[in-house]
Structure formats: C-alpha cells, structure tokens
Amino acid sequence: MVLSPREDEEAIVEQAKYNRQAFLHLYEYYLPHIYRYAYYHTLNKQDAEDVVSQTFLQALENINTYQNRGIPFGHWLFRIAANIMGRHRKHKQRERLWNDSQESEYSEKTEIDLDLEKLELLKHMQNLPDSQRQVLELRFIQDLSVKDVANILGRSEGAVKQLTMRAVSRLKEGMIIHAK
Amino acid sequence: MQNDFKKYIHEQLGKLPEVEPDPAFSLQLKKQLEEQPQPKKLRVGAKPWRIAAVAAGLLLTLLIGSLLSLPGEKSQNRLGPVLLASSAGGSAGLWYGGSVDLFRKVTFEVQENLPVINPETKVVKLSSAKLTKQEVWQLAQQMGIAGAEIKPAFNEMEKDLVQVEGTNGQLLVKLNQGSWSFINSEPDTTGPAITMPEAKQAAINWLNKLQRMPQNDYEINIKEIVGGDFEVVVSADYREKQLEIIGLRPEIRVIVSSLGQVRQAEWLWYEAEDWQTVPLYNLQEALQSLQRGEGQFESSGYRSSAPGTARIKQVDIRYQLAYTMDFTPYYIPMGVFQGDYTPDGGTPTSFTAALALVKINTKPNLGNFILGTKLPSAQPSVQQLSRRSYSGEEIAMIARFFGINQGLNAQGVYRSSQGELSVNQDQGGWIFRSSAIGSTSGNKPLEEQQAIQAASRFIAQVPLIPDSLGKAEIKNYSNYGDQWVIYPILYQDKAVIGLGLTGYESYVGVHIGPEGEIWQVVCARPLQIVPETTSLIAPQDAWEKLQENEALIYFNEYELQGILPGDRFAAAQSRITEVNLVYLPGPELANKQAVGIYYAFTGVAQIGEAQVNFTALVKAEKI
Questions:
Q1: Could you tell me if B44 and B183 are in contact, meaning their C-beta atoms sit under 8 angstroms apart?
Q2: Which residue in B211, B213, B275, B270 sits closest to B241, CA to CA?
Q3: Quick one: pLDDT at residue A5?
Q4: In angstroms, rounded to a whole number, what is the distance separating the alpha carbons of residues B606 and B597?
Q5: Of A68, A50, A64, whose CA–CA distance to B38 is shortest?
Q6: A62–B42 C-beta distance less than 8 A
Q7: Which residues in chain B have Cβ-Cβ distances shorter than 8 Å to A86?
Q8: d(CA B433, CA A108)
Q9: Are the C-beta atoms of B550 and B564 separated by less than 8 Å?
Q10: Which residues contact B349 (CB under 8 A, 6 or more apart)?
Q11: Bridging pattern class, strands B308-324 and B245-246
C-alpha cells in the first residue's frame, strides 16, 4: 500500500474546508493508511480504532488551518496520528502495571497471525524511544521515503537518517541481548 | 553488519500482513464525521499539551548527588539531594533507572593522562519560578482565557499540575517548576499575513505583556513551520560565561500564526540569581561513584548486570539543570566521561558516562535520622526465597477459571472471547486481561473500600493464588476511573519490595474498572520459601549502620523515584516511623538466583521546604 496523494487532492482539500462530502472522500482514501499505521503501532484493534477516530476528528476540527506548504494532506494526517499515538503511549505506560515488573505483554495483544520473528521484532521496537520507533514505522512499515518521513515528523532528512541508524543499532543490541 | 541488520528489519517490517479496518467501524466513523458541525473557528482539540511531555521529562528525575552539609552548619551549598532534569530519551513515564544502578558491574580505568579536575567550581543558583494557583489564575487572565476554571490536570497523582480550561484557550501549569503550556483555541482566521521578523516581534511582545520575557543569557531563533506558522524559540545561552549546558535546558517556544496571533506556547525559564562555589570530586572519587552505580552510563556494548571494563580517555566538565528536592533550580557541574567499554569476553565499543561532580560530605548521620518507633525483635535468621513457576496444568486451571477453555496459541497465550491469559516464562508470573477492559469509563473511580472489597472477593475465588497476601493498597495511575488494588505476597510475613511503581516485586494486582468490573488480574513474580537460611544482624546494628550512612535511600513517589546511596542523602531531619525486615531482589535475581534481605526503615524526611517519604534499606545479612 503506497501513500501517494490523489491527483486532485489540493482541490479536494480546499473544498473539504466547507464541504463535508469532500472531507469524506479524503477520509475514505486515507483511512487504510492511517489504520495500518495505528494498528502496527498499537497492535490492538480497539486502540488502533481509537487513534484513527481521533485522527480524523482532529483533522476535521483543524482543516481550516491546513495549508499545503510542502506538507501534503496525507503527511499532515500522519503527523496528527503520530502525536495522538505519542500521548496514547504515555497513558498506556501508566495504565499498565504489568510492565512494572513483568515482561512486555506486546505479543499477547496481536489479533492477526504473525510469525515469531516479526513478533519478536515488533516487541523489541516497543522498547525504542518514540522518535526512533516512529521513524522505523514510517520508513519500513509504511514504506515512506526519508524525505516523506522528515516531512511528517517535522525533522530534517539528516535527523531521520540518524534516528534510523540509532534505532537499528539499538534494536540489534536489544535483540542480541535477548538472544543471549 | 549494521546494514545487513537494517535490511533484515526492512524486509521483516515490509512483509507485515495487510490489516484492514473493520467495515462496521469505518462506516460508524464516517457517519460520525458526517454529523460533526462544520468547524467555523478553531476549537480546543484533544489537549495536545506538549508541556505534559516537558513536565513528565522533568519528572523523570535522576536522583543523584548531594551537595550536602549538615543543618546548622554555615555553608553556601546546602542543597541536599538534587534531581537532574532529563528528557530521558523522549520517553515520558516514571523511571528509576537513572538513580543508582544496582545492576552495574563496570570497572572504570583511566587509560590516558586526563586533565585534572579543579578542586572546586561554581554552581549557578537560578531564580525559582514556582507559581501559586492564584498566580496561575492571574496568568490565565493576562492571556485572555475566558470563562475559565482552574482544576487539577489529568489525575490526582500529579499534584503540582493544574490546568485552566476556558472557552477560547487552555493553560497547563507545573506549579513547582513554574513551567507552563498555553493553547489559544480561537485565533483569528482572517487578516493579512505577517513576515518572519514580525512574527518574532509578536512573540516578544506577547511575552513582555505577560512579563515572561527572559532578561539575560538567552538567544532567539525563528523558523517557519507547517501551515505557514512561525515557531519562535528562546533558549538559555551561557556560552559567554563559559558554561556549556547539556540535557534539558530552560526554553520558551511560541507558535505565531501566519496572521500574527500566538497559537501555542511552552514556557520554562529561570534567570541566574547567584553563583556559589562548591568542592568537586577528584578523578578517583568520581570513578568510585561511577563504579557503585551512580550517574548515567551508556554504551551499545553494555548489558545490565554483565561485567566489563570502561577505559576513560576524555573528561569534560559540562553543566546540567537540576533541582533541589524543594524545586529550587540550579546548573550543577557534571563530569562527562568518554572512552571505550569492553564487556568481559566481548569487543570494545565507545561509551559516555555523566556524573554530578559536586563532592559529598562524609560526616555521619547525614540524614539526621530519628527513631520514632521501636526496633523489631532480633531474629537470628530467615529462610531464603527462590523462583516459583506455574506448571502447564496449573496455568490451564487458572485459564479455565477465567472462562478460557482453549489451549495455548502460537504466541504462548490462552485466548477466548472472555479475554487472554499469558504467562511470563522468565519470571514465572501470569496475567489475565479481560476483553471488558476499557469498556466503561468515568471520571471517578470506585471508593477505595469498595474497590478493595471487589478485588478481595474476586481473588478469593482465583485458584492457586498465593494465600499469604498482605494488606491491600490502591494505586491509581490513570484518569479513566480505573484503579489497581495491589496485595504484596508475603513470605514468612515479609514482603518482597521492588523499585517500580507498585513498590513490590512479588504481588497480586487486580485492575478494576469504574463500575467495579475486573479488567486485569496479575500474579507478579511469585517466589517460594526454601530451606536454606540467611543469618541476620541485630536491628540495633542495622540502626547504627543507617547512622553511618551505610544504606540505600529509596524514594517511591509519583514525581520522585529512585535510589540514593546513604552518603548522598542529606536532610534536616528524617523521622523513622516503621522498621521491618523485607526481601529485595538484587542483581542476582536477573540470573534467577538470590533475593537479598534488608531492614527497611520507613519515614519522612524534611529536605529544604519539602517533606519526602523514604525508605532506608540496610543490609541485614550477617557476613
């Protein structure tokens, strides 16, 4: 699933500022992308749906402020979703006493069949700092370019590359330690 | 190698199965979006409080160092233990890993000639920015927040965090640090666009109007951000005074709309008030401190509790924002050590360690401990503990109790429409998570007694729950009306304490929803008593050790969590109200071996203006 703007997107976004049907066109087009992003971040259907709902409701609420100045509408949605998931994660951290003294429960929450290798990788990604984890999710799960990820996260391309490098290095370290 | 691993990650993540939103959900959300009123003006969103991260980052305090001296002594530097402000890798939440690292087994060596650390240097005392609720209210009025009410933010545990929520804006304030975040939810959407210099001036004017524009030691930067808005950043700059600041620093961010209105702002600022001279560690003392687990140590080759050697090649003095326990801000000197770290049997990688260099006081009874209770009777020995695992049959029995009749799935989880039961293979515990979790929400949790009754009734029915449970305690970590009831598991009447949120390592926890429904049940790290015994020192001997600073001082409060060595703790008075024997898993438990036994002296310390609950742990094992 490749994220690319609709050809007529700019016009639709402008219409969406006063026309709800235009907004719903955008919703239908971007829903699968945002859902995939949210699902593989939360690994939980209910949580993913919460993130998706909040993302589109917030986008609708703020669409009057959106202007495409090098940030395509899709990237803007991803940015909103990323912020929501950041807050979501913080709430979850406090909610889950289980993490206090137990191993991560990540693996138990998946509702689709994942092979153990992928599961293990996702589990380790959960331990990365938010910024590193977001970069990996956007680059490798969403298959976005460095430039697009930089655009979404409001960082420079160099910073994205550096975050990727750090994330890979930290994951490698974590997985090797785990394997020991 | 690194590239191969990156390729591997890319391949694995790129091949994740497609996931589709549930059609019913898609339709429902579409309908909801269809029915939403058209936004004419901006409205307050879902509280995108960046300050929460800033504040939480500040709360992620690393407990280290005491700038010491006994009360009554004339000293310029009676700061007490300090809290280092930290963004902790951008991750918000409670964290104790930054205090004494009991699991560190690194030997520090000096490989090359290092510069001598000066015997003393300056600390910068900063002006306090603490706010009262009245001052918060006035600030909100100055900002023009209309129809506002002031209330606690998020949840009751964050006592110092308050918010003012109005019809046209929100203000969130951390009272003790004086930091705040503002959102203007109704900026004008019409008018001429402004230029970058005009945006900068608009931000300065706004800060001046609030009397919150820094006076000294700052620089201003501005950049255009998404949507044509501008971000004006005022940050601390002490380069002229030869102070290089590391870590989280005072900063003000103001977002000015393309039409010239302040849309958002975050504010954390302190002016330098006084420069004080303090004695510093010499290199050997710094190495000893690092060796016993103080400060931060980072290396890609480092594994907690695994031995290794760090060879220091470079030492630099930097400054970091820190708070005394009553939240007076300072910049304190930090030693930043760099070199190579080699795990035993491994290959060298680079490392960086950072340590507060302010010298500690070695006088006895730094905490001014007063015994306000009787010492327990002497006990010659206690039995030791070891790991207890649930067998497959036992877990199946527990699963059946929770209505799960299917066997393990590929991920090692029992799952049904009732919920999931999973086992922690490493620690021997288990957790049940009901499918009803999150199904209800409310602002108010059940009354404590009701919650405890509901939890106690429930766990009395769960098979194979340890029967020696201690007194129930309520822990409430969210503002969704849910709460946890925690029962420490007792072994010969002694709890196994932990350094995490619950305060226990071995416990049974019941997560209760706002309507009394059971959301989760956890049996964490069950242990068992074994015949081997440990001989104990007498309580009186432990009390004397405490007065000789031979203890670990443990704090477990929402905003203050971590461990200090006894000789890094200083207080005007520390009144002990309870003394118990407790188990504490040491580094060895990571290897599934021993659990240590300690005398726990619990009490309240007066540190500056703050009263802080603490537990001082003194090793009880007779050697």
A1: yes
A2: B275
A3: 60
A4: 27
A5: A64
A6: yes
A7: 53
A8: 10
A9: no
A10: B299, B300, B301, B340, B341, B342
A11: parallel
Residues of chain B in contact with residue A171, where contact means CB-CB under 8 angstroms, are 5, 9
Out of A27, A100, A154, name the one closest to residue B500 (CB).
A100
CA angle B344, B346, B347 (to 5 degrees): 130
Q: Does A156 touch chain B (CB under 8 A)?
A: no
Residue A72 pLDDT more than 90? no
Q: What pLDDT score does B553 carry?
A: 87
Q: What percent of chain A has pLDDT over 90?
A: 8
Q: Is B37 exposed, middle or buried (0-12, 13-18, 19+ CB in 10 A)?
A: exposed
pLDDT over 70, % of chain B:
81
Cβ–Cβ below 8 Å for A57 and B509? no
Q: Is B444 exposed, middle or buried (0-12, 13-18, 19+ CB in 10 A)?
A: exposed
Both tokens of B412, joined, read 């090692």
**Cβ-based neighbours of B367, under 8 Å, separated by 6 or more:** B546, B549, B553, B566, B569, B570, B571, B574, B605, B616
Contacting B residues, span 16-55, partner chain A, CB-CB under 8 Å: 16-22, 25-26, 29-30, 32-34, 36, 38-40, 42-43, 45-46, 48, 52-53
Q: Please list the ranges in chain B whose pLDDT falls under 70.
A: 1-3, 37-99, 112, 152-159, 226-227, 304, 325, 360-362, 408-412, 425-427, 438-443, 476-480, 499-501, 557-561, 586-594
Nearest Cα residue to B255 out of B192, B185, B191? B185
- CB spacing of A154 vs B225 below 8 angstroms: yes
- Locate tokens 């009394």: which residue? B516
Rounded CA gap, B568 and B116, in Å? 23
List, in sequence order, every residue forming a beta bridge with B535; answer none if it has no partner: B381
- Type of residue numbered B296: Q
Averaged pLDDT for residues A55-64: 86
Residues from chain B contacting residue A43 (CB–CB below 8 Å): none
Token digits of residue A179: 């394997």
* Whole-prediction pTM: 0.58
